[in-house]
Specification:
TPR-like_helical_dom_sf; single chain; globular; 3-stranded mixed beta sheet; Transcription factor 25; TCF25/Rqc1
């Protein structure tokens, strides 16, 4: 072989080595600023990828992100100049983390996603209309609502920068008035009739029907109605309303705005039940970002739980520290005081964890007893002499114990708590004497919507013992405004004012299909319960028929070739 040929062979080998190294680096480095150059350089690579589509699946593209995202919040905080901007940055949402099927796929694999109904994708109707950043299977909701829509839900910006308001049309308010009439008079049959015969996109009605299904144990169908309500509200977003930015605000006192808070909260609840705390944390960040100053649904009482379960320890610590600097005093919440200490412990920052746990135990000793009782753990004699006492009722503590007691069941965590308790017992420091706290309205809303076993509101907890609590709008603010149902015609309710009480009772009882008019006082209650049971069965049957009809429609579309191409489905799944 000549010298010229040897040099040429060496050049070719060098080029091949450089190309191989480029292939390895491109997977981890961000694409160059010159997009056209990037596309040209990868043209040959794209041909290889087509032959390996199963490996480089679109789902995995969407889910390919750095697992240790805990570093991101710290960088954001350091780069931000103002404390308010720091809070906004910590509440910034990653869109790919908002759909729980992505987390299901990462944790349990593709089969679990199929069991949940598949990835979100259009299933009829215009593709653009079906896209959603919040819910899966948006196309199915779009198909289901055809022909039975009230419409009239819009969003407008207010005079305050970054603040928005939902607006309802006159037709929507008319339905709202009928809905309020049905709820106030216990006309559940009329409520069901509205759902079946006339409408499918009234948000408060969907929330109420969802709550009925949940109480009967139909949790998947209950979650489906909440997703539909969320989809309706999302379709009304103003173009400038970017929920993922962490900067857009909604005044909870405005009646039309409250539906988004409540549907997001219930959506996070259902996502958590599916074992997806990372997605639930992202949704909770969205809720808090709407009003981080007042936190109208007290979402701060559950965000720590989602963060610990999702192993987002650094995010929780950074969030806690920024809020403290901003004067929010999160260390005054028992859940935050203990969870932040637990986050430091899991990061192996033991000195800091010991210090924070010591402060939490001295300030909230009732949490230790509640957690120990929940886990059926006996304190040793030394610790029991300090902490095992009778404490007054505290709903904040009860919530935390019910939600987070299992987080302290690990052997190393229990040993850590025991060590700090013994240090306190051998020191002159003694825990503060807990008192019964005042329960603000946002806590009452939180408990009503959370459905935590073992934590129920009693008449003594209510601002007024006889206050009616609605699941679709619990404990509205005293400064509430924007409810136009009060300006609607009273539907001849004034004629009831002059009627005897017995006549009114007979009228209300007549709404119960099992009432015959011959019941005595003892039989009325059991008859009413049977009527409610029949009603719930009807709702369950209705939802079953809806799901069957939806599946039949999807199968028919697939048979006719109406479904979008696979790449279109993947595009929708990434939204």
């Amino acid at each position: 072989m000549s010298l010229r040929h040897m040099k040429r062979l060496e050049q070719l080998n060098n080029v091949s080595t450089i190309a191989d190294n480029d292939d390895e680096i491109d997977d981890v480095l961000p694409p160059p600023k010159n997009k056209s150059m990037f596309q040209m350089r990868n043209k040959a690579k794209n041909k290889k990828k087509k032959n390996n589509s199963k490996v480089d699946d679109d789902i995995e593209k969407e889910l390919r992100f750095i697992e240790d995202e805990n570093q991101a919040p710290k960088q954001i905080v350091e780069e931000t100049s103002s404390e308010e901007a720091s809070i906004d940055s910590l509440l910034t949402i990653q869109l790919k983390l908002l759909k729980y099927e992505n987390e299901v796929y990462r944790k349990f694999g593709p089969e679990a996603v199929k069991a949940e109904g598949g990835l979100a994708g259009a299933k009829g109707g215009p593709r653009i209309a079906n896209r959603s950043i919040l819910v899966r299977d948006a196309g199915s909701h779009y198909v289901e609502m055809r022909g039975r829509r009230v419409g009239g839900v819009t969003m407008v910006p207010t005079d305050t920068p970054d603040q928005f308001e939902f607006r309802f049309s006159s037709d929507y308010w008319q339905v709202q008035g009928e809905f309020a009439f049905a709820v106030d008079f216990g006309d559940s049959a009329g409520l069901l009739e509205m759902l079946i015969e006339r409408i499918s996109d009234h948000v408060d009605l969907l929330i109420q029907a969802s709550d009925m299904l949940r109480e009967e144990g139909e949790v998947p169908r209950s979650a489906d109605l909440i997703e539909r309500a969320l989809y309706i509200l999302e379709k009304a977003f103003h173009p400038s309303f970017n929920l993922h930015s962490g900067k857009c605000r909604l005044d909870y006192a405005c009646k039309p705005n409250r539906a988004l808070y409540i549907t997001l909260f219930l959506h996070a609840y259902h996502i958590s039940l599916k074992g997806c705390p990372r997605t639930a944390l992202e949704v909770s960040k969205a809720i808090l970002s709407l009003d981080p100053c007042h936190d109208p649904l007290a979402v701060l009482l559950v965000m720590d739980n989602f963060a610990i379960r999702a192993h987002e320890y650094k995010w929780l610590i950074n969030f806690f520290e920024v809020m403290q600097k901003n004067g929010r005093n999160l260390d005054g919440l028992p859940n935050m005081a203990y969870s932040v200490a637990l986050a430091h412990f899991h990061l192996k920052e033991y000195d800091k964890a010991d210090d924070l746990l010591r402060k939490a135990l001295l300030r909230f000793p009732n949490v230790l007893k509640a957690v120990a009782d929940k886990n059926s753990v006996m304190m040793d004699r030394t610790s029991a002499g300090v902490f095992d006492k009778f404490y007054p009722e505290n709903l904040f503590v009860d919530l935390y114990a019910e939600r987070c007691a299992h987080l302290f069941k690990e052997a190393n965590v229990m040993q850590w708590m025991e060590k700090v308790c013994l240090e306190i017992a051998s020191s002159p420091d003694r825990p503060e004497k807990p008192t019964t706290p005042k329960y603000p309205r946002n806590l009452l809303r939180h408990i009503t919507l959370s459905h935590v076993n073992g934590v129920k509101l009693q008449p003594r907890h209510l601002p007024k013992a006889d206050e009616t609590v609605y699941g679709f709008d619990p404990f509205p603010p005293k400064t509430s405004y924007g409810d136009l149902t009060q300006k609607l015609p009273q539907r001849n309710l004034d004629v009831l004012d002059g009627l005897p009480e017995a006549t009114i009772n007979n009228f209300l009882n007549s709404l119960n299909p099992n009432w015959t008019g011959h019941e005595d006082d003892q039989n009325v209650g059991s008859s009413l319960r049977r009527g409610v049971g029949s009603l719930v069965e009807a709702v369950v049957d209705l939802m079953g028929n809806i799901m069957d009809a939806r599946n039949e429609a999807n199968n028919e579309q697939e048979a006719q070739g109406d479904n979008p191409a696979p790449n279109e489905r993947q595009d929708d799944a990434q939204q």
